[in-house]
User: What shape does this take?
Amino acid sequence: MNKQIKLITLAALFCGITTITTATFANVQSSEQVEKHVEVGKDDGHGHEHEGKNEHKEEKDDGHGHEEESAGVKLSKEQLNLAEINITVLEPQAMAFSIYAQGEIKANDYTSYLVSPRVDSVILKRHVALGDHVEINQPLVTLFSESMAEAQASYRLADSEWKRVQKLGRQAVGDKRFIEAQTDFEADLGRLYAYGLSADAITSLATNTKKLGQYTLNAETSGAVLSDNFRQGQRIESGGTLFDLADEHTLWVEARLAPSMELDLPENSKAQVKVGKKTYIATVTQKAHTIDLFVRTPRWAKGKQKVQYPIRNI
Assistant: This one.
């Protein structure tokens, strides 16, 4: 009977400790306040623990009709350990969280290149296909143009006259003929450059046995062929796109977020781009200032760079 009473009393004691401790620590903000509410008993050397001075403090009126709260519960070290209560100073900490958004991988507009004829031309032969990787100065397509034939013929005459005048000398031919020959040569040379001929192609005009009017466009940058929407024999106007070359070392990602989301995302913030099972580190460079008219979401972009990361092997 005595053992049963002791067990019941011990169970009641722990239940009371758990309940009162939970209520007491609900509003605790620092270790100093915890120490005010919890007093650890000290052993007097005879197996008895002395209780603190504030064991039975009565509630006092503060003069304004309010009663002060009681001192709280006194717990020994063993009771604190048994109840798994730890006293720690609360400190402010920064919370990290992630925002997920769908994105679209695009070519970098500032490293890509559109290949197009600068005069009306007919496509004679292609040298690369869709998906091929090309290098700088690699031949892409051969075309024929009447305007190019006239420009090449005029350049040949001007080049021949300019060489003759230079050989004779300025004093022999006179200033007028010397200046006219030089001016005609420079004008025809500039027109060929404007039509898209390379320096090597212009140099070879003097000894080239091919028909006038044929010319080849070379790659101005290295990259992959993303589009080539044309056929051999097709006539294409000046400015029409033949190839779209993209440098895949640096690509763009456009991520769309809800316009109502108040997100402070400073420039140069780091982001993770997940493509399949691979993850790439990207840099956010700017938030667009326009809303997409169809999906009503802001488009993440930047004038110079968008989100950039290496993705060449994908």
In short: The two ends are 79 Å apart (CA to CA). The mean pLDDT is 75. DSSP finds seven helices and 16 strands in the chain. The longest strand covers residues 269-275.
